[in-house]
């Protein structure tokens, strides 16, 4: 056991020694004209290089697996029997050198995943009740403990800020590099980096239960989840490798050509075929992880690539989930004065639409806080009245306008109807008995979503559908604005599930995109469930794909990445099979021999790895300017 461990730990040194001995052998023959030096150098090179290969072959046989190493081992023994020491030395060196390059290149494909685990905090500054600070291992932190986070440090827990403020880099969670302002009462995620300030955080989740811990676990598990292509290749290899042994035996029986039979063993090694699919999936998963996209394994990648129908929830998915002023009809001589009066009036109300109006006034740089309020009254079912800066202000619905004898012109009636048809909540403002404003307040459609939905179509989506519990007018308006193919409104969660089952029965491959909380039944029913959520437990655990940024740019990238990964996998399989066919034809025609065949074989492994590595850089990361443009919400 110690010998095996020693050999495995020093395999790179053995590879180097083998290369040096091969160089000495060629130097002995062509510089010193010494066959003895030539033969013994190659014999020693063959022996030391064959040891780690034969150990791997033996370990595989113990678990009843006929491995590539066994084929090479038999080929080396055969080469010794026929005295082809140079062939055996070169074959074993190329095999070990190929393994070395394979490990180096594979490590690059896993780098983004490794970087996640390296970012996981290991210690925390624990605050005791008496104010004392103690640095402890992260395993010793319990829920409810207070943790201090200093400038430049990583937040070690999920929790809520109880004191302090600062800017946090949450890119390891969301893939979004823009710093996020946090203050008392805000939640923070483990793995976030505090750019400035000092925070005291009350731990709500620790260790593997944190959002960051779950991300690491999911990404690591995803590497082991096999795609259909990988599963097929695993089964294929179980039969293919013994078949190569049988073919080599049959070649010898019918031709009595031992060197050719041994060469068949070398050329038949399915290395590129075995490595091609896994390395593509690992590279694709790593690409997603860098962008805050969790794709749960090769099988999910394969299913996602087949999706032709995207079904969306509305609130929080197609829209931002927060109300804002979406329409303004202005009849005032001084629109800023009318807006200031209604904003000051809404400060007196706790109605949900009030904040949208005051936010709009603030956005328009209208000053209203200093206005004097002499009196106000709330009228149930209608709105409110107030006396502000000497003006009698009415804020409410059409019923309030009629009750206070505020007359509307035909044009104003037409405007009111137009705003109502958008599905917006309507707020009418009258000042001193005359209508001055009609405001439409609605959930904000995600900026740039129409273009992103078209991008989904460009990548292969054929049907874009909305399923929502909202009213039909609002749902239809949103669908028309962003260009959906179908819309079904006023649905209960179980009715959404029924629609998804109906689509599946029609032969569609369905992905449901929701917030990962109240849409869990629909997410579970679709072939692919996609959660556009910022790290909720339900989103992470129940969905096949989690978009930590909650952005449609990430959705488009995930969809195109899955398709690119599946294509890349097929390319690798084609390359591997093509190389085997080429080698066998070359053997039959007599221009491929053991050493040259082994060189081509090892080169093919590197080709499929380098091909897969192209996935690591697939899709340009958006610039800060692009992100700012996407996040900007226009108010009209």
TrEMBL record:
Gene3D superfamilies: Calcium-transporting ATPase, cytoplasmic domain N, Calcium-transporting ATPase, cytoplasmic transduction domain A, HAD superfamily/HAD-like. It is an enzyme of class 7 (translocase). Its EC number is 7.2.2.21. The keyword Metal-binding applies. InterPro entries: ATPase_P-typ_cyto_dom_N (IPR023299), ATPase_P-typ_P_site (IPR018303), ATPase_P-typ_TM_dom_sf (IPR023298), ATPase_P-typ_transduc_dom_A_sf (IPR008250), ATPase_P-type_domA (IPR059000), Cation_Transport_ATPase_IB (IPR051014), HAD-like_sf (IPR036412), HAD_sf (IPR023214). It is a multi-pass membrane protein. Keywords: ATP-binding, Cadmium, Cell membrane, Membrane, Metal-binding, Nucleotide-binding, Translocase, Transmembrane, Transmembrane helix. Residues 119-220 form the P-type ATPase A domain. It catalyses: Cd(2+)(in) + ATP + H2O = Cd(2+)(out) + ADP + phosphate + H(+). Its main location: membrane. The chain crosses the membrane at residues 12-32, 38-58, 65-83, 89-106, 236-255, 261-286, 573-593, 599-617. It comes from the Bacteria. It is found in: Cell membrane; Membrane. Belongs to the cation transport ATPase (P-type) (TC 3.A.3) family. Type IB subfamily. This is Cd(2+)-exporting ATPase.
């Amino acid at each position: 056991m110690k010998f095996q461990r020693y050999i495995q730990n020093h395999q790179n040194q053995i590879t180097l020694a083998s290369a040096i001995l091969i160089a000495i052998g060629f130097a002995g023959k062509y510089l010193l004209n010494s066959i003895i030096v030539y033969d013994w150098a190659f014999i020693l090179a063959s022996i030391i290089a064959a040891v780690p290969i034969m150990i791997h072959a033996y370990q595989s046989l113990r678990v009843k697996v006929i491995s590539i190493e066994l084929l090479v081992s038999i080929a080396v023994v055969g080469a010794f029997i026929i005295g082809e020491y140079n062939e055996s030395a070169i074959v074993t060196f190329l095999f070990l050198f190929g393994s070395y390059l394979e490990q180096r290149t594979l490590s690059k494909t896993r780098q983004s995943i490794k970087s996640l685990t390296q970012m996981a905090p290991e210690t925390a500054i624990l605050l005791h009740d008496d104010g004392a600070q103690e640095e402890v291992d992260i395993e010793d932190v319990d829920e409810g403990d207070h943790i201090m986070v200093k400038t430049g440090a990583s937040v070690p827990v999920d929790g809520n800020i109880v004191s302090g403020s600062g800017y946090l880099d949450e890119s390891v969670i969301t893939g979004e590099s823009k710093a996020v302002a946090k203050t008392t009462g805000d939640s923070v995620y483990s793995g976030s980096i505090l750019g400035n300030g000092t925070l005291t955080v009350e731990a709500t989740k620790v260790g593997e239960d944190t959002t960051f811990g779950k991300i690491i676990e999911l990404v690591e598990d995803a590497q082991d989840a096999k795609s259909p292509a990988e599963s097929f290749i695993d089964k294929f290899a179980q039969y293919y490798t013994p078949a190569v042994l049988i073919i080599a035996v049959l070649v010898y029986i019918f031709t009595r050509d031992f060197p050719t039979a041994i060469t068949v063993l070398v050329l038949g090694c399915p290395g590129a075929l075995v490595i091609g699919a896994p390395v593509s999936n690992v590279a694709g998963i790593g690409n997603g992880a860098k962008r805050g996209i969790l794709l749960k394994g090769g099988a999910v990648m394969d299913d996602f690539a087949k999706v032709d129908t995207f079904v969306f929830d509305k609130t929080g998915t197609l829209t931002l989930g927060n109300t804002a002023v979406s329409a303004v009809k202005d009849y005032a001589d001084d629109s800023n004065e009318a807006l200031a009066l209604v904003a000051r009036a809404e400060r007196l109300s706790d109605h949900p639409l009030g904040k949208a109006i005051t936010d709009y006034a603030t956005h328009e740089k209208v000053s209203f806080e200093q206005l004097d309020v002499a009196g106000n009254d709330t009228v149930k079912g209608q709105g409110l009245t107030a006396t502000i800066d000497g003006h009698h202000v009415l804020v409410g619905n059409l019923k309030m306008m009629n009750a206070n004898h505020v007359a509307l012109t035909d044009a104003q009636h037409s405007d009111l109807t137009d705003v109502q048809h958008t599905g917006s909540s309507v707020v009418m403002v009258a000042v001193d008995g005359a209508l001055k404003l009609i405001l439409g307040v609605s959930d904000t459609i995600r900026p740039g979503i129409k273009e992103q939905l078209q991008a989904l179509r460009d990548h292969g989506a054929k049907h874009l559908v909305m399923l929502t519990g909202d009213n039909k007018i609002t749902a239809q308006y949103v669908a028309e604005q962003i260009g959906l193919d179908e819309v079904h409104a006023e649905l209960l969660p179980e009715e959404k599930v029924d629609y998804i089952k109906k689509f599946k029965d029609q032969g569609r491959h369905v992905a449901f995109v929701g917030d990962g909380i109240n849409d869990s039944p629909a997410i579970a029913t679709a072939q692919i469930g996609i959660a556009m959520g910022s790290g909720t437990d339900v989103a992470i655990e129940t969905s096949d794909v989690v978009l930590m940024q909650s952005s449609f740019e990430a959705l488009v990238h995930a969809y195109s990445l899955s398709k690119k990964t599946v294509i890349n996998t097929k390319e690798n399989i084609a390359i591997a099979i093509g190389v085997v066919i080429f080698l066998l034809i070359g053997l039959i025609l007599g221009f491929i021999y053991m050493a040259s065949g082994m060189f081509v074989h090892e080169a093919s492994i590197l080709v499929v790895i380098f091909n897969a590595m192209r996935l690591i850089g697939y899709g340009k990361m958006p610039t800060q300017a692009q992100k700012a443009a996407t996040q900007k919400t226009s108010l009209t």
